[in-house]
């Protein structure tokens, strides 16, 4: 799989990222057993074999269990760490109410605990998971400086942040900000005014901050037909269009969705979240698809719900 540099000075990443949110099989820690471990290792092995070099985590995934599983996988596969990059996220506190926390203490302590679970020497990129409405940008910068100086984290990023939030943090931390993880898929185009139309992707390209895409298959709605029971003319039209165009490229609906994202000039890197080895392998084919302008716009038009103005 081809690789790209994250941001201005970040690590090398495969163009498709393997997302580790589901590797535990459940967010109920008590459900994890030897069979679930076998399935998790099979998924991770398939991703490595297919050429994924970027593995995405968050401290909250399965209440820290996913990071622990991955740390065990690295320990069981000597030499693998030098061939891959690892991203994890912090900033969400579960509780009543749930809160978002970009304070110095929370960022630093969360990153150190993630590093212990991942058993990886250092974290390549630490992302702040959801925007903290009480954030102090200078406090974030101080946390980043501490983590980088002690070798815990090499680079940093954001997740789910708009243009204004990106600029606020970028002005405080500079080029150490290498990516912004967003919900990106065809069902987020106009008239819903998502990142395609509101300037977010243009701004990231101008700043050379790499967009990475969570839920690129729209929560499974673009993985296969009949995944939803409710009628949805736009979704159905997008599915039909992806299937039709996929026949030209010998690719299924999910793989074509990934190829559609990869075609965007902002350099979107989709996150593959399947735990099924065959699906992980199949979607890697998107890296080889050269989607034409006409085909890209046919998918966009289907998502738009009507002819473009």
Radius of gyration: 19 Å
Helix share of residues? 25-40%
Which oligomerization state do the chains in this entry correspond to?
Answer: single chain
Number of strands: 12
Our measurement of the CA-to-CA distance between the termini, rounded to an integer number of angstroms, reads: 37 Å
From the helix content, strand content and strand pairing, which structural class follows? alpha/beta
Order of helices and strands: EEEHEHEEEHEHEHEHEHHEHH
Secondary structure tally, helices: 10
Largest sheet: spatial strand order = 3-4-5-8-9-10-11-12
Largest sheet, in brief, is: 8 strands, parallel, barrel
- Shape from CA axes? globular
Strand content: 15-25%
Could you explain the architecture of this structure?
The protein is an alpha/beta fold and 309 residues long. It has a single domain (3-219, 261-287), classed as NADP-dependent oxidoreductase domain (TIM Barrel, Alpha-Beta Barrel), CATH 3.20.20. Helix content is 39%, strand content 17%. The chain has 10 helices and 12 strands. It has helices spanning 34-50, 65-76, 104-118, 137-149, 163-173, 200-207, 233-249, 253-262, 277-283, 293-304; strands at residues 3-5, 12-14, 17-19, 54-56, 85-90, 92-93, 99-100, 123-128, 153-159, 177-183, 210-214, 269-272. The chain has an 8-stranded parallel beta barrel, surrounded by 5 helices. Strands 1-2 form a two-stranded antiparallel sheet. The relative contact order is 0.14.
């Amino acid at each position: 799989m081809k690789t790209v540099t994250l941001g201005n000075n970040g690590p090398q990443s495969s163009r498709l990222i393997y997302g580790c949110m589901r590797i535990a099989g459940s967010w109920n820690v008590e459900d994890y057993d030897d069979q679930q471990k076998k399935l998790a290792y099979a998924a991770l092995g398939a991703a490595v074999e297919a050429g994924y070099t970027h593995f995405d985590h968050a401290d909250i995934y399965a209440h820290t269990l996913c990071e622990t599983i991955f740390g065990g996988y690295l320990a069981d596969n000597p030499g693998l760490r030098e061939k891959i990059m690892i991203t994890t996220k912090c900033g969400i506190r579960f509780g009543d109410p749930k809160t978002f926390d970009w304070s110095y203490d929370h960022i630093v302590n969360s990153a150190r605990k993630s590093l212990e679970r991942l058993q990886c020497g250092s974290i390549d990129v630490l992302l702040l998971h959801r925007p903290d409405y009480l954030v102090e940008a200078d406090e974030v910068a101080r946390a980043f400086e501490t983590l980088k100086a002690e070798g815990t984290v090499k680079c940093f990023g954001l997740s789910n942040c708009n243009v204004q939030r990106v600029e606020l943090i970028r002005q405080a931390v500079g080029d150490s900000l290498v990516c912004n993880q967003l919900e990106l898929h065809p069902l987020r185009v106009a008239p819903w005014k998502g990142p395609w139309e509101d300037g977010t992707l243009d701004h990231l390209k101008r700043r050379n901050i790499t967009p990475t895409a969570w839920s690129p298959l729209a929560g499974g709605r673009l993985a296969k037909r009949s995944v939803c029971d409710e009628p949805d003319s736009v979704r159905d039209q997008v599915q039909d269009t992806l299937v039709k165009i996929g026949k030209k490229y010998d690719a299924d609906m999910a793989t074509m969705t990934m190829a559609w994202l990869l075609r965007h000039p902002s350099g979107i890197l989709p996150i593959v979240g399947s735990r099924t080895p065959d699906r992980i392998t199949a979607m890697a084919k998107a890296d080889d698809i050269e989607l034409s302008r006409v085909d890209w716009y046919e998918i966009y038009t289907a998502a738009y719900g009507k002819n473009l103005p």
